[in-house]
Amino acid sequence: MFIVSIPALQRNTRILRDVKEAAGCHLVLALKGFSCWKSFPYIREDLDGCCASGLWEARLAHEEFGKHVITYSTAYRAGEIAELLEFCHHLDFNSLNQWMSAREQIMAHPRYISGEVQCGLRINPQHSTGETALYDPCVAGSRLGITADQLIDADLTGLSGLHFHTLCEQNSDDLESTMAAVDEKFGHLLRLPQFRYLNMGGGHWITKPFYDRERLIRVVKEAQERWGVEVWLEPGEAVAIHTGVLRATVLDVFASAGHQLVILDVSATAHMPDVMEMPYRPDVFLVNGATQEQQPAVVMAGETYELADIAGEKSFTYRIGGPTCLAGDVTGDFSFSRPLVVGDTLVFDDMAHYTMVKTTMFNGVPHPAIALQQENGELQVLREFTYEDFRNRLS
Ligand SMILES: Cc1ncc(COP(=O)(O)O)c(C=O)c1O
Fold first, then answer.
1. Which of 135, 238, 337, 367 is such that its CA lies 20 to 30 A from the CA of 376?
2. Measured in angstroms, how far is the CA atom of residue 25 from the centroid of ligand 1?
3. 0.90 exceeded by the pTM?
4. How far apart are the CA of 29 and the centre of ligand 1, in A?
5. Atom of ligand 1 nearest to the CA of 234
């Protein structure tokens, strides 16, 4: 079971609220990182709205969160723009192609004419600050964002914002160096009166204790003063970090080829894909093991928790795996101070952000339909997935 703690969420959103108020900017929740919408009433007051990766997340933002809806999609599908124009406030585009093909339709829409919806371009400042290529939108050949050379002599009619997202779990020194790159490559555009907003994306680890919030506030204020733009921040992880756990039950324990193996009722590949994609080693707690001071993000009355160590550090080491057929469905080797037995509960810490959304429909990307092909070549569509399928899997 995934469990999300409301007080832990609110601890984060109150920090985020203080930061945005001090900086005088706007801050929204990135649904791609956390979209358990039944929790929205508890955090809505602290945040300015949501950012969405496409139509389904945008609908969820509009219907379940309210307030400001920002949509940026790597590519909009045919017909989506018409629906998004009915309720979005910012529509950001990943390529000039995409913008130019939608521009006429957008500029004729009453909400665009009245200023309720504004449009922007995602830019790529080509300034890498992260260490993992998988999370770096500035790698050579990146498909995310428009580079400065593509904008030379481009027709920018109808645009009023720029948007960049280049950070991932980073501190504000990396934001500051990114801002220098944005200034160098795109400052001449931001100085134009037509540009009214700058979206600094997500990846800001604002709610971590070591995060330098004063620097963030200064960098945001400088951007607002230098270019006269509104600044928007759209963190996902910083909203939901240290707020949730995934609880698992031990189904089997046995020895094979010198290893002690544990099979759980949850899987790395099916339920914690970042453990394998990133890859990373989550903190794992044994319920009612040896008592320790450290605790997972969600604690239950009457339980004690023992944080597992690396292999060999404590007396009993196990390779912990899931119930799927994938040979590599393994979360890692962990050691405990007592033997594990069938029925034990293990708690994977910090599983609210990204893990929950990746287990459902990541980014709200519609699930492909499923069809059978008959002998005569005809397709029989068995199942098409709808917005309601997406929404209902999240809460
Ligand atoms: C465009 C955009 N905005 C915001 C975010 C949220 O980032 P984070 O959860 O790291 O704060 C992402 C994450 O990939 C993103 O791609």
1. 367
2. 17
3. yes
4. 9
5. 4
- Measured by CA distance, the residue closest to atom 16 of ligand 1 is 165
Residues 6 or more apart whose CB falls under 8 angstroms from that of 137 comprise 124, 144, 145, 165, 166
| Å from CA of 163 to ligand 1 middle | 12
CA of 234 to the centre of ligand 1 (A): 7
CATH architecture of 245-351: Beta Barrel (2.40)
Among protein residues, the one whose CA lies closest to atom 9 of ligand 1: 236
| Residue of the CA atom closest to atom 12 of ligand 1 | 202
Helix (H) or strand (E) holding 97: helix 96-107
Task: Report the nearest atom of ligand 1 relative to the CA of 122.
Answer: 1
The pLDDT value recorded for residue 338 is 96
For the chain (length 395 residues), average pLDDT per consecutive 10? 97 98 98 97 98 98 98 96 98 97 98 98 95 89 95 96 97 97 97 98 97 98 98 98 98 96 96 90 94 90 96 97 96 97 98 90 92 97 96 87
The domains of the chain are located at 2-240, 245-351
Task: Looking at the CA of residue 167, tell me the nearest atom of ligand 1.
Answer: 10
Architecture of domain 2-240: Alpha-Beta Barrel (3.20)
Length of the chain: 395
